Amino acid sequence: MTTLATVAGEPIGVLAVMAVAVLLGAMTQTTVGLGLGLVSAPVLTFVAPELMPGVIIMMGMALPLLTLLREHHDIDWHGVRWLTPWRILGTVGGVWIVTQVTAEALERIVGVVVLIAVGLTVHAFAVPMNRGTLGVAGFISGVTGTATSIGGPPVALLYQHRPPHQVRSTLAVIFVTGSAISLTGLGVSGELTLQELQVAAVLVPVLASGVALGTLLRSRLPLSVMRPALLGVSAISAVVLIVKSFV
Fold first, then answer.
1. Is residue 44 situated within a structural domain?
2. What is this structure's pTM?
3. Is residue 17 part of a domain?
4. φ, ψ at 38 (rounded to 5°)
5. From the CB of residue 131, how many other CB atoms can be counted at a distance below 10 Å?
């Protein structure tokens, strides 16, 4: 009988670590609207850099689809329309980074992006929402989302003061469209592998479990407790990733 590790092409231990990271990331994103990439990307880049950024981008496309099944009535379509064209342009830059940099350089990029994202999330500041800021956020999201799988924070900063339901549903639409664009770019450039698809398929049930747990926690666990803890884990993972790239 073919084992899960053989099908996925990764050892069971590595898959277990990735599963825990995806579970925590899905719980975080379901609770606050983003976090899958923040929590999962440093871990996956550390244990299986050959699977990045494709696996997390695929996870980042599947999770918001689950969110939209429950929350799709408060989407800010105006923002989505202005963000999407710029996200496409940013994707081109992200694909170029993936095709040009070494594995060590990508680890450093992911680590730095995570630290910046965590810092902006913790010390969020008010950013006016207009066509200009939506375009800038879309472009940066396209670059970082394609190169490192972490494209949510630039957009989340714009929506941080909107109602929670609108934040989650709007970010979900942006993540779905953005991930589809990024995956298309990676596929055309030959940077998307069959193994990445296999591992993503294995992790989908874990992702769904994280969504279910996050839905429960959203009503029971104060964000003042959950967010700092998981963002702290993300920051530590990013630092470890950066140090590893230099060793």
1. yes
2. 0.80
3. yes
4. -60, -45
5. 11
Query: Considering the domain boundaries, does residue 1 fall inside one?
Result: no
Range of the domain at 77: 7-246
pLDDT tens, per residue, the chain with 247 residues = 344 455 567 888 899 999 999 999 999 888 877 788 888 888 998 889 888 889 999 998 999 888 888 777 789 999 999 999 999 999 988 888 888 888 788 778 878 888 887 887 777 666 788 999 999 989 988 888 888 888 887 888 788 778 877 888 888 898 898 889 899 999 998 889 999 999 999 999 999 999 999 888 877 777 667 667 767 877 887 887 788 778 6
Contact 24, 211 (CB under 8 A): no
Phi and psi of 243, rounded to 5°? -60, -45
Instruction: Please report, for residues 49, 94, 97, 147, the alpha-carbon distance to residue 103 in angstroms, rounded to integers and kept in the order given.
Output: 7, 15, 11, 12
Number of domains in the chain: 1
Local structure of residue 51 (DSSP, 8 states): G
Within a domain: 144: yes
CA 93 – CA 169 distance, rounded (Å):
27
Rounded distance between C-alpha atoms, residue 116 and residue 101, angstroms: 20
Q: Report how far residue 243's alpha carbon sits from residue 92's, in angstroms, rounded to the nearest whole number.
A: 28
Nearest-angstrom CA–CA distance, 89 and 129: 20
Question: What is d(CA 214, CA 183) in angstroms, rounded to the nearest whole number?
Answer: 26
Helix (H, G, I), strand (E, B) or coil at 113: helix
